[in-house]
Amino acid sequence: MLRFLVRRFIGAVVILFLLSMVTFVLFFGVPRDPALLMCGKTCNPDSIANIHHVLGLDKPITEQYWIFLHNLVMGSDQFAQGPCPAPCFGYSYHTNEQVWGTLMDRLPTTVSLTLGAAVCFLFIGLGTGLLAAWRRGTLIDKTATAGAMVISSLQIYFLGPLALALLVYQTHWFDKPAYTSVTQDPAAWFTGLIIPWVILSTIFAAQYTRMARSSMIEQLQEEHVRTARAKGMSRRYVFFRYAWRGSLIPIVTIFGIDLGSLFGGAIITEYTFGLPGLGNLAVQSVFFSDLPLLLGVMLFSASMILLFNIIVDAAYAFIDPRVRLA
Amino acid sequence: MTTLTKEAGAPHPAGAGPLLAVRDLYVSFRTEDGVVRAVDGLSFDLERGRTLGIVGESGSGKSVTNLTILGLHNPVFTTVDGEILLDGRELTTARESELERLRGNKVAMIFQDPLTALSPYYTVGRQIAEPYMKHTGAAKKEAWQRAVDMLGKVGIPNPRERAKDYPHQFSGGMRQRAMIAMALVCDPDLLIADEPTTALDVTVQAQILDLLKDLQQEFGSGIIFITHDLGVIADMADDIMVMYAGGAVERGTTDEVLRAPRHPYTWGLLNSMPRLDSDLGAPLSPIPGTPPSLLNPPSGCRFHPRCTFQDRVEGAGRCVRERPLLAPDRSSACHLTEDQKRTIFLEEIKPGLG
Amino acid sequence: MTEENVLTAPRGKDAGADGEPLLRVSGLTKHFPVKGGFPIRRTVGAVQAVDGIDLTVHAGESFGLVGESGCGKSTTGRLITRLLEPTSGSIAYRGRDIGHATRKQLAPIRSEIQMIFQDPYSSLNPRQTVGKIISGPMEINDINPEGGREKRVRELLEIVGLNPEHFNRFPHEFSGGQRQRIGVARALALEPKLIVADEPVSALDVSIQAQVVNLLQKVQRELGIAFVFIAHDLAVVRHFSQRVAVMYLGKIIEVGDRDSIYTRPRHPYTHALLSAVPEVNLADDDSGGRERIRLAGDVPSPISPPSGCRFRTRCWKAQDRCGTEEPPLVRIPGNREGHLTACHFPEEPTIEARDEDIVLDPALAALEEGQAE
């Protein structure tokens, strides 16, 4: 297990390294100069050259990349804005704030949104899916399947504004979604996030319902499940001990991918509800051609996805004894 | 053993009646293409301690019959009609909880492919101990010890350690031994073995077949042994029932059915199977055509589209119109007269068997 | 052998005529690497699927290959058809070594060596019509038979006993036995000289098996095609093959004409194998019993096979010598011409019942002992 983890973490670092390189090359390959956005109305070639010099963009790309790597690992005090301890992505071109600090500021919003929604959609989605599989072929099953089908074909950018319009602007039952730190005011944290949670988890729950149902039904047709029934184990026992164990593999796989990408920023949800999370930050970094911020968000999201991938693979070993990690 | 279920069944009602009696069993499934009549009017008995071999090809209804005995068919899509009496107790109408008490306890089952029939997620020991705990109320430790003992009995070397292994750590033959240990752990009265050696290599198959025979002597269970292999059935069974397209076409003792078969389908099976001592000069004589679809089975005798003897039956077209019946004892469901059956076998079939 | 040599066609039309066998395999070996290690994955071992086998197949002959799962018989078939590349050894087809031939060099030979697979369900493309499946090999090899490909497809369907009008149907419209016939027709499309049939009937029902075996036999005899017939069913192999090789853990342990292998076997494993086949005794009395040998356990892992004779771990005659010295596959005293056995302590050439059964399985021995008391 330890060997597996070490190997996978080394692999993840290599991937991140390659990813940063690709991002770098692409950034300079795109004909869009951040200096043009920064120098404002009185722009002339001199001031652009000056901005290039200040940002270090006049250096060769390889040298810039080397500086980026050096700063990331060692930190740097070469920045005009102030010192920048490791992991240093530099300062945002747009806000002049330290990128790592900004990421850490935004992270609690994304984590709150993701975790809250994940709890909801796991319980509701899996619960409904299991119920449908248990009552396969009945009205309950058909209703759940049809409902899940309809809901999972909806989109956040449709459901979100609809919910806002109905629940916030029309009826004033809820406050406009906003983020308050949970340590500051738990009640405000909860009420501010309830609508995004519900909307985000509705769509996910529908997908998990379908997945849980289909993988349970598949498992229930496995021969070893029939064997368990043939030796007199009750239907409930077989359902939850034998079939459920097998269904966990696809569920955990998808859950890991979902959680990883949500932690990297639920872009559309955050944008729809105006929540200041990592997803919003990603949009902003692209919009302003903000290389340090872009690299920061990018690598952070990627590491989240990689991390959850490793967690999922490690989880396989606990679920299925046939999986040997080495 | 000190459980309620066992005690209730313990004093056999003076050994009266057969262990298992199936009467006019009809099983059909609803599918997208229509209704599949998988078992179509089947009756048979099994006496205590004896082995009934059921021979048939895919789609003959042999496996469905046995899943129905245990009530393991999907009730949503399946219609069951007729009677299944285990020790005089009706099973087709029995409640689920009653069936659960019987399964793995009085009636146990061994499946074809032990790799897929054992759960990959639990240790072999636990899978064997589970039904023992459930049916005898034994404590965990006691049940584990019983599982280890059973593994030793079926010839798993070092059973104490191997009980902690998962099925994928066992070889194919050992998995089937574990499966047998699991089936016999509660000392069942009836053991249903559904093609238990088809997935195994021939030397391992021989070990498993001998093991089953020896264990039957020790445990005294009645066995229903399902297979498509006449050689295996000859080795295992006391009595044989040949099934075709959802019904029985011939029954009798093993000697009777294999040495003096009376049904054209049984002749066909014997003819089409090469043996280690068969004549090499002549080609095999296969049964023409293919097994019928059970969505739309042939009228009259189910075998008539593939039968080469129907023109010898008295009364033209009788095989197409009228379904021949199978008597309870030694008999075959065919419109040929007993004399015809005897002479055709002796004069036309037997010489070809070499 | 130079590339030139590989490419030149053999002298005569049929190389089998002047004594040169159609296929001569020598020292054929296939090891599949096993990966492992830390921190960098590397090859840490090998599954010795096939480990140095020699065999010859003559033109028009049917050669049977029997053995239990994991003995390497299927791998051998795939090596001969060059679906796999051997680790070492040579495969000489009509005198040309195709063991390491490139795709280009293989192209003309591929049409002469065809394969029939076990599973008639997965070996036919479900999205192609039968006509397309059977004419596919002709298209790839750019063969335009007289009267067009469609006419040839109809002919082939007729040969394998299917309705020629059905060439526009899809595989799912056929039963298992009929699909296997389609597989045979596809293999025949290029008029091959050699067909490797890997368990061609074991997925079929008993009554259908005989139909397909008869078809293959007809094809073999009437078209003069040589067969390598791979199967685990000893009776079917006996029925089909003139010569038979028995494999165990990647080695041929005994080879000979059918009669020698089935009635005068010398290798203990061949004895065990034959005695394990359950048989219907059709005799009116119980005379002529066969010997009863029950081995213990399963076949060992081909990753680390036993030293010396590979069968020694399950053999009742094994002695120290068997562990140190690998028995060569030779004609031992008492064998007929062409009957080779790889054993230091061969058995008597008979399969009659012995004075005492050989029961090595400990559970069986214990149970039988208990009942004897």
From TrEMBL, chain A:
<protein>
    <submittedName>
        <fullName>ABC transporter permease</fullName>
    </submittedName>
</protein>
<comment type="similarity">
    <text>Belongs to the binding-protein-dependent transport system permease family.</text>
</comment>
<keyword id="KW-1133">Transmembrane helix</keyword>
<feature type="transmembrane region" description="Helical">
    <location>
        <begin position="146"/>
        <end position="167"/>
    </location>
</feature>
<dbReference type="InterPro" id="IPR045621">
    <property type="entry name" value="BPD_transp_1_N"/>
</dbReference>
<dbReference type="Pfam" id="PF19300">
    <property type="entry name" value="BPD_transp_1_N"/>
</dbReference>
<keyword id="KW-0812">Transmembrane</keyword>
<keyword id="KW-1003">Cell membrane</keyword>
<feature type="transmembrane region" description="Helical">
    <location>
        <begin position="187"/>
        <end position="206"/>
    </location>
</feature>
<feature type="transmembrane region" description="Helical">
    <location>
        <begin position="293"/>
        <end position="319"/>
    </location>
</feature>
<dbReference type="InterPro" id="IPR035906">
    <property type="entry name" value="MetI-like_sf"/>
</dbReference>
<feature type="transmembrane region" description="Helical">
    <location>
        <begin position="113"/>
        <end position="134"/>
    </location>
</feature>
<feature type="transmembrane region" description="Helical">
    <location>
        <begin position="9"/>
        <end position="28"/>
    </location>
</feature>
<keyword id="KW-0813">Transport</keyword>
<feature type="domain" description="ABC transmembrane type-1">
    <location>
        <begin position="107"/>
        <end position="316"/>
    </location>
</feature>
UniProtKB/TrEMBL annotation, chain B:
<dbReference type="GO" id="GO:0015833">
    <property type="term" value="P:peptide transport"/>
</dbReference>
<dbReference type="InterPro" id="IPR003593">
    <property type="entry name" value="AAA+_ATPase"/>
</dbReference>
<dbReference type="InterPro" id="IPR013563">
    <property type="entry name" value="Oligopep_ABC_C"/>
</dbReference>
<dbReference type="Pfam" id="PF00005">
    <property type="entry name" value="ABC_tran"/>
</dbReference>
<keyword id="KW-0472">Membrane</keyword>
<comment type="similarity">
    <text>Belongs to the ABC transporter superfamily.</text>
</comment>
<dbReference type="Pfam" id="PF08352">
    <property type="entry name" value="oligo_HPY"/>
</dbReference>
<protein>
    <submittedName>
        <fullName>Peptide ABC transporter ATP-binding protein</fullName>
    </submittedName>
</protein>
<dbReference type="GO" id="GO:0005886">
    <property type="term" value="C:plasma membrane"/>
</dbReference>
<dbReference type="GO" id="GO:0005524">
    <property type="term" value="F:ATP binding"/>
</dbReference>
<keyword id="KW-0813">Transport</keyword>
<dbReference type="InterPro" id="IPR027417">
    <property type="entry name" value="P-loop_NTPase"/>
</dbReference>
<dbReference type="InterPro" id="IPR003439">
    <property type="entry name" value="ABC_transporter-like_ATP-bd"/>
</dbReference>
<keyword id="KW-0547">Nucleotide-binding</keyword>
<dbReference type="GO" id="GO:0016887">
    <property type="term" value="F:ATP hydrolysis activity"/>
</dbReference>
Automatic annotation (TrEMBL), chain C:
<dbReference type="GO" id="GO:0055085">
    <property type="term" value="P:transmembrane transport"/>
</dbReference>
<dbReference type="InterPro" id="IPR013563">
    <property type="entry name" value="Oligopep_ABC_C"/>
</dbReference>
<keyword id="KW-0547">Nucleotide-binding</keyword>
<protein>
    <submittedName>
        <fullName>Dipeptide/oligopeptide/nickel ABC transporter ATP-binding protein</fullName>
    </submittedName>
</protein>
<dbReference type="InterPro" id="IPR027417">
    <property type="entry name" value="P-loop_NTPase"/>
</dbReference>
<dbReference type="Pfam" id="PF00005">
    <property type="entry name" value="ABC_tran"/>
</dbReference>
<feature type="region of interest" description="Disordered">
    <location>
        <begin position="1"/>
        <end position="20"/>
    </location>
</feature>
<dbReference type="GO" id="GO:0016887">
    <property type="term" value="F:ATP hydrolysis activity"/>
</dbReference>
<dbReference type="InterPro" id="IPR003593">
    <property type="entry name" value="AAA+_ATPase"/>
</dbReference>
<dbReference type="GO" id="GO:0015833">
    <property type="term" value="P:peptide transport"/>
</dbReference>
<comment type="similarity">
    <text>Belongs to the ABC transporter superfamily.</text>
</comment>
<dbReference type="GO" id="GO:0005524">
    <property type="term" value="F:ATP binding"/>
</dbReference>
<dbReference type="InterPro" id="IPR017871">
    <property type="entry name" value="ABC_transporter-like_CS"/>
</dbReference>
<dbReference type="InterPro" id="IPR050319">
    <property type="entry name" value="ABC_transp_ATP-bind"/>
</dbReference>
<keyword id="KW-0813">Transport</keyword>
